Amino acid sequence: MDSMEMNDLLLDLLHVPGLSGREDPVLRYLQEIWEPMVDELRVSPLGSLEGVVRGNAPQPRPKILFAAHMDAIGLMVTGYQGDFLRVTSVGGVDPRVLPGGIVTVHGEEDLPGVIDQLPKALLPDSAPKDSVEFKYLIVDLGLKEAELKDMVQIGDLVSFQQPPLMMGDNLIAGPALDNRASVAAITIMLTSLQTRDPAWDVWVVATSQEEENMSGALTSAYTLQPDLAVAVDVTFASAPGTPDHKSYPMGEEIPLGWGPSVHPGLYRAFEEAAEEEDISVNREPLPMRSGTDADVLQISAAGVPTMVLSIPLRYMHTPVEMVHKEDIRAVAKLSQALIDRLDANFLSTLEWEE
Amino acid sequence: MSTDNQFDLSLIETLSNLSGVSGAESAVRERVMKEIKPFADEIQVDPLGNLLVACRGEESGPRMKVMVAAHMDEVGFMLTAEDDDGCYRFAKVGGISEKYLTGKSVWVGKEQVPGVIGLTPIHLTEKKDRKSFVPLKKLRIDVGAGSADRVQVGDRAVFATPLKQVGDSLIGKAFDDRLGVAILIELIKRAPKQIDLLAAFTVQEEIGLRGAHVAAYKLNPDCSIVLDTTPARDFPVWEEGVENAFYNTRLGKGAAVYTADSGTISDPRLVQYLLRVGEEEDLSFQFRQPGGGRTDAAAIHRQRSGIPSVSISVPTRYLHSPVSLVRLEDYQATLNFVEAALKNMSSDILGALGT
Prior knowledge:
The complex is a heterodimer of chains A (354) and B (355). With 354 residues, chain A is α+β, with helices and mostly antiparallel strands. Chain A folds into two domains: 3-72 and 175-349, Zn peptidases (Aminopeptidase); 74-160, Elongation Factor Tu (Ef-tu), domain 3 (Beta Barrel), CATH 2.40.30. Chain A is built from eight helices and 17 strands. Chain A has helices spanning 3-15, 24-34, 145-151, 177-193, 215-224, 264-277, 294-297, 325-340; strands at 40-43, 49-53, 63-69, 74-81, 84-90, 101-106, 110-117, 137-140, 157-160, 165-167, 171-174, 201-207, 228-236, 254-258, 281-285, 306-314, 321-324. In chain A, strands 1-2-12-3-13-16-17-11-10 form a nine-stranded mixed sheet, with helices on both faces. In chain A, strands 4-5-8-7-6-9 form a six-stranded antiparallel barrel. The radius of gyration of chain A is 21 Å and the shape is globular. The mean pLDDT of chain A is 95. In chain B, strands 1-2-12-3-13-16-14-15 form an eight-stranded mixed sheet, sandwiched between helices. Chain B has a six-stranded antiparallel sheet with strand order 7-6-9-4-5-8, with no helix packed on it. In chain B, strand 4 and strand 5 form a beta hairpin. Chain B has 355 residues and is of the alpha+beta class. Chain B folds into two domains: 9-74 and 173-350, 3-Layer(aba) Sandwich (Aminopeptidase), CATH 3.40.630.10; 76-159, Elongation Factor Tu (Ef-tu), domain 3. At the A-B interface, strand 7 and strand 10 of A face strand 7 and strand 17 of B.
């Protein structure tokens, strides 16, 4: 995939909505993109998209699963107040990013609106003087009450409207790069698979509901019963306001997850593949659960060896998340490199040895 | 939306999308110049960058000189120091609450290079950290390392909010005071015949009305009308059953006429005159609640020996934020109201005070 195609893919992925539990628009978009590149494509009962590129090894052929969640964080309508809507969060949203933002309310049609906190003079004395709380936020669609109730229902979802920003040649900013950046990475991997002849079956899954409960990944892993599973997600990039010791530079190295959610043998296989392919990597300590789909992939059925690949991302869970496009490419390349090294004996050599 | 707008919507869009932070109004000035040139009798740019335009009346004899002012500048930022990796410290230019900064995108410099103001990921903060706004000194404008050669310390930045129509409303940035600027351009294009219209597109309003101060001296008018925007805080009160007595103005209620704000006591003869015009012509207008806030009138009315002044604003929600919201009908009403006021204006409305 050349850089123009990659830009288009990223821009498309940032423009289509798809909040946790309501992934339909991004699901439909990916169905169209993946369809010509896979041998079979299906949608799980919980709305994950599952595609497979068949391998050439004899049956029972082993399977590897690459999961990237396609759902995004956002807001949900909880009620009306006069000409305004009240909202709560879907996924982890720091309300301090909201006042003065533009949002899209997915009502009868997509409706742009302004979100702000009520002026102090209209709030009770107990309201915070210099912060933001969800309960004091209003969304203004510029509509009158009657019209508003026609167009918007309680439970309707609300996305950040921030359009994607191309920042120089390498950086892109916008909402939902967590985790559309990873969806782009596994899509790029799919394009490179087209000219390969893998031994294993390679399943790619765009999972639903990660930001709320990871139910998409859990259930797809049950259905597909992979022998190996890789969660591709974002991690913290070094940035103003982010401690250096908890973050990774953009555009330099791919953090490889290391901890209880990661099978050490699979980790080493990735590390070796990276070294042979000259891809810079670094170890990302994940001391407890990883906070990614790997946590549920790992405990599917009788247990699955799992791995976490990360794309460093600035300002996570804000409307202005930022990633480096080379990191997306590197994750795709590393994933392909691992697939190239999977043979009939791979599983027999895999041991949990830290 | 209503299709009978008697104004140029694309003009509002163009003006709103331009960057023009106080002290860097050139792009707006150039655009205004282009619009008004064919209609103006005299044009000058003064030492601060005010654009002063005279449209002389056609009647002979001494004509009333009416100054109408609208400020070109908007609130925004200046990059003050460079960190690593495309990140810059910045200062506010004009009044912007900290609550509006995090998680927003900006346009930096004349080229409008995209940048963002991020926030520590929620995963890395504790609940108590989120109880207050992030202080300015901890925030950065991030243009990305690859764009660092396209911006420099001293560049201005504005919120990156392209204008958009939403139903009967517009949302966008810098409505304060590009709406006033757009109205003033429309007025020049249909200038009244019986007076000298002295239009002042002022600079540096947001940092202390500095442009208007010298513009009023230079123009030396008989009276002035200031066109601006004023907050519409017609929101619900959190506590049920309590009436919002703090609305300032309401959307859909038309042009907002000032009787007093914290900088100016409007000239009573002008207020009465406006009231009469509004009632006689059945125009949509409302009184802005007296209270805080200032307009260029605060500088103009005390220039020279004193200049009777009044302000008229377009009611607008969410001013001095990344995105404001205005009703098309209120913009139209304000344009109609000021146009009617100018058309009927004559020196006798300023009969001596105290008689």
